Amino acid sequence: MKKAICILFVLFLFSFQSFSQIKPFRFGVKVAPNIAWISPDAETYKNDGPVMGFSWGFLADITIADNYFVKTGFNIDYLNGKLEYPHSQNLGTDTFPTVGVNNRKYNLRYIEVPLTLKMRTNQFGKTAYFGEIGFGTSFNLRAKSQDGFIYNNGQSSVETKKDISDEITFMKETIILGAGIEYFVDQSTSLIFGLTYNNGITNILKGENTIDPNIKQKGYLYNFQLSVGVMF
After folding, report:
1. Which domain holds residue 111?
2. Beta carbons within 8 Å of 2's beta carbon, 6+ residues apart
3. pLDDT in tens, 96-114
4. What's the total number of domains in the chain?
5. What pTM was estimated for this model as a whole?
6. CATH number, domain at 37?
């Protein structure tokens, strides 16, 4: 019995020593160009193409087991997208609103708090591979638009720039899927190269169409990010 207890005690000390050698926290920074688009879910609204943007942020890996981490931090995301939809507006000289088509480019800024499970392989030389899955919660910091309004006869266009904070929801949720490579410079420092897909699962638009109020504005924001970072 005493021999068994001694063996268990030695195994416990060995396991504790092995885990204690793993850093409980790692921190880092990243920059990431992105490409984003809005997928409308409203009648007569059309996606008008993806738009480039940019993100930067701070990273934190919390170790829960060897090669398993809870990843969090915060990101500042500059996300853009374009929609085309029927629209009416008063051009100033007209007595009645003018009907036409609006081509809107959305310029949106968010602060995001991601929470993902990160899984990493063992090192192959100085390189390891990782994948992550989780969720991101974002809060809107700024919302502006560049509008190109075209009359129904197609002869005239009016460009406007304005604040559209009242047409954008304050919070959005995303599913995060990512993968990448980690290159270890030394025992405590590594370079991160990753590709992340952010799948919007909540509507980011508010209000209704100016021609048909029965049509509620609804759309989901998606983006890919190609990130480069350093972890300490």
Report:
1. 24-231
2. none
3. 788 999 999 999 999 999 9
4. 1
5. 0.88
6. 2.40.160.20
